[in-house]
From TrEMBL:
Residues 77-286 form the Fumarylacetoacetase-like C-terminal domain. GO terms for molecular function: hydrolase activity. Pfam families: FAA_hydrolase. InterPro entries: FAH (IPR051121), Fumarylacetoacetase-like_C (IPR011234), Fumarylacetoacetase_C_sf (IPR036663). Belongs to the FAH family. Keywords: Hydrolase, Metal-binding. This is Fumarylacetoacetate hydrolase family protein. It comes from Pseudonocardia zijingensis. The keyword DNA repair does not apply.
């Protein structure tokens, strides 16, 4: 399944002879699920059982620009730092022995194709695989953690590095939580749609002034096989301390190629397309205040 948020209503995105359409979950289930996007994750087992045999009909065409964050109001948003070997290496930091965790405040969440206003000339990019939780878990082993995954989405962890790194102590969560600094989507994709979530290719391609005269530049290209803490390990380790709830969102880290280590930051007029193999793509445009 591919579960999305269209006009703040839960929809299933389906491919048919007439192209890609959206099926309204509340209407198709006669009010059993939805319309709130988070509702399908709060009743995940019942929802997946229904969806497996439901007659979804034809749906309706839609503009991808209409898509919102698949879960616009999670109870918790987690983000994991230094979780790709090559990214830790480019930062000249040791590979962590434990999760490096911060949050992106909920007001920074956005749909996949939003325009981002740059608050300064120090805004960086980080393509990430985003995980949405489908079952409440606490103190979970790896198997229970794997079973708690509802699906995956494409995300960007935009960061204003001056705020993030200012003293006397770093302010990761503030520097990463300006409006539209946590776009994700285009849909939450269930594991049965993917060949292997542990071997997904992530790419971030830049067009515009930051491409320095080239038609486009690939800024990041990595694979989830390079994760230091795989997704089920992230969930398990988090759950040793906190309780994870249905609809919670986890940004799982970024591969090498971020701008900070090479002095490359986003500029007004830039267009960044972030793609994860099998999961989807999203495009963000950047403007001055």
């Amino acid at each position: 399944m591919r579960i999305a948020n269209l006009a703040n209503r839960a929809v299933l995105v389906v491919d048919g002879e007439g192209g890609t359409t959206a099926v309204d979950v509340d209407e198709a289930s006669a009010g059993r699920f939805g319309p709130a996007p988070r509702a399908v994750f709060e009743e995940w087992d019942a929802f997946t059982e229904w969806a497996a045999s439901a007659d979804l009909g034809d749906g309706r065409p839609f503009d991808p620009a209409e898509l919102g964050a698949p879960v616009p109001d999670p109870r918790q948003v987690f983000a994991i730092g230094l979780n790709y070997r090559d990214h830790a290496d480019e930062a000249n930091l040791e590979h962590p022995e434990h999760l490096v965790v911060f949050t992106k405040f909920a007001s920074s969440l956005a749909g996949p194709n939003v325009t981002v206003t740059l608050p300064s000339d120090k805004v960086d990019y980080e393509i990430e695989l985003v995980v949405v939780i489908g079952r409440e878990v606490h103190d979970a082993d790896l198997d229970a953690s794997r079973q708690a995954i509802a699906g995956y989405a494409v995300g960007q962890d935009y960061s204003e590095r001056a705020v993030q790194l200012r003293g006397p102590a770093p302010q990761f969560s503030l520097g990463k939580s300006y409006p539209n600094f946590a776009p994700f989507g285009p849909a939450v994709v269930t594991e049965d749609e993917l060949d292997d979530p542990g071997k997904l290719r992530l790419t971030a391609v830049l067009e515009g002034p930051g491409a320095d005269g080239a038609p486009s530049v690939t800024l990041q290209s990595g694979t989830t096989a390079d994760l230091i803490f795989p997704v089920e390990q992230i969930i398990s380790d988090l759950s040793r301390i906190v309780t994870l709830y249905p609809g919670d969102v986890i940004f799982t880290g970024t591969p090498a190629g971020v701008g900070g280590p090479r002095g490359l930051f986003l500029k007004a007029g830039d267009v960044l397309t972030s793609t994860i193999e099998g999961v989807g793509s999203m495009t963000n445009r950047f403007v001055s205040p």
